[in-house]
């Protein structure tokens, strides 16, 4: 089973993962041998902090082992093809997490690999395991009522693979509401806005918010992203999320961010009770434990 796109998920699969993640979180000290003898290979052709270490942590907690591959230290520097690298790596492990800046390489990898592949981020394409942990984080905060919550996406809507993937999951829950506060020239497409308006029964004109006229009372979740400098030449003024902004939101609203952050999210927010991105990281461990177990152990 490959995990390539959040478009391939359905509600049953998501709810099974959530139940499994809840169980792993509750029984953290009783699951050490679930994946004993299994090996995960982290194949990263692009920098990563949270995704790579989160999958490592998840695999180790389940009793498995991890091999970490970094492109900069590999035979690709000697001219080895991407396809040969993937074929080689797939002989050493039972599952692979692959990150690559070229969004098309994930499809190449599937044809070459003899083991399941989890898309750990493919350029400006998708990041399906991040989408799962993001939705699980919202569920962790609001329980089953997460299906009726409203989310504001702030930042580089055009290039953020985390936004693209999470939107696919939110579309499974039409009672959820979606809004955007995009950086200039990095707005959602007209097709994206039209789909949200029709599927989520929202006023078309209110989906894209204006910085000078934000309706703070609308949002249960504010999902902030950085400017994807490696994917765009835009250098626009960045919206700054600080305590002045955050304190205008609902008391139980949460601030999420896939990280890393740059200047768009002030560190002063870290002490605000609405801050949720560190809890979001913790949720990522349990949802990735569930994902690895589902793939390698038939979800048992």
Describe this entry's structure for a reader:
The chain has 300 residues and is an alpha/beta fold. The protein has two domains: 6-126 and 284-296, Rossmann fold (3-Layer(aba) Sandwich), CATH 3.40.50.1370; 128-281, Aspartate/ornithine carbamoyltransferase (Rossmann fold, 3-Layer(aba) Sandwich). The protein is 36% helix and 14% strand. The chain contains ten helices and eight strands. The chain has helices at residues 11-26, 50-61, 82-90, 105-112, 128-142, 161-170, 190-199, 204-207, 243-246, 277-296, and strands spanning 39-44, 65-70, 95-100, 117-122, 150-155, 177-182, 221-224, 254-256. The strands form two sheets. It has a four-stranded parallel β-sheet, sandwiched between helices. A four-stranded parallel β-sheet has the order 6-5-7-8, with helices on one face. Helix 2 links the parallel strand 1 (39-44) and strand 2 (65-70). Helix 1 crosses helix 10 (277-296). The two termini are 15 Å apart.
Low-confidence stretches: none
**Main sheet: strands, sense, barrel:** 4 strands, parallel
What number of structural domains do the residues give?
2
Instruction: From the 3D structure, determine the CATH topology of the largest domain.
Output: Rossmann fold
Number of DSSP helices? 10
Helix % is 25-40%
**Secondary-structure element sequence?**
HEHEHEHEHEHEHHEHEH
Strand count: 8
Q: Approximately how much beta-strand content do the residues carry?
A: 5-15%
Main β-sheet, spatial strand arrangement? 2-1-3-4
- Can you identify the CATH superfamily of the largest domain? Aspartate/ornithine carbamoyltransferase
Reading off the top of the CATH hierarchy, the class of the largest domain is best stated as Alpha Beta
Main structural class: alpha/beta
- Rounded to an integer in angstroms, the radius of gyration calculated over CA atoms is 19 Å
Shape: globular
Reported CATH architecture of the largest domain: 3-Layer(aba) Sandwich
């Amino acid at each position: 089973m490959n995990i390539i796109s959040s478009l391939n998920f359905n509600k049953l699969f998501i709810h099974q993962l959530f139940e499994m993640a809840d169980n792993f979180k509750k029984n953290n000290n009783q699951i050490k041998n679930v994946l004993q003898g299994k090996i995960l290979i982290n194949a990263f052709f692009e920098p990563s902090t949270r995704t790579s270490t989160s999958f490592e942590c998840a695999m180790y907690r389940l009793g498995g082992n991890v091999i970490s591959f970094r492109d900069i230290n590999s035979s690709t520097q000697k001219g080895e093809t991407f396809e040969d690298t993937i074929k080689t790596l797939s002989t050493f492990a039972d599952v692979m997490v692959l990150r690559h800046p070229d969004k098309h390489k994930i499809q190449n990898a599937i044809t070459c690999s003899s083991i399941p592949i989890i898309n750990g981020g493919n350029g400006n394409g998708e990041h399906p395991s991040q989408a799962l942990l993001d939705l699980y984080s919202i569920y962790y905060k609001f329980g089953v009522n997460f299906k009726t919550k409203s989310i504001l996406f702030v930042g580089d809507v055009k290039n953020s693979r985390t936004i693209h993937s999470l939107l696919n999951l939110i579309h499974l829950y039409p009672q959820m509401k979606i809004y955007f506060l995009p950086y200039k020239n990095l707005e959602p497409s007209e097709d994206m806005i039209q789909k949200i308006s029709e599927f989520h029964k929202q006023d078309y004109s209110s989906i894209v918010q204006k910085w000078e006229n934000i309706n703070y009372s609308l949002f249960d979740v504010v999902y902030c992203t950085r400017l994807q400098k490696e994917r765009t030449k835009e250098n626009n003024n960045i919206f700054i999320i600080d305590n002045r902004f955050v304190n205008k939101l609902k008391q139980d609203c949460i601030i999420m961010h896939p990280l890393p952050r740059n200047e768009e999210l002030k560190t002063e927010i870290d002490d605000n009770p609405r801050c949720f991105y560190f809890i979001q990281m913790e949720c990522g461990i349990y949802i990735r434990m569930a994902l690895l177990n589902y793939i390698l152990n038939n979800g048992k």
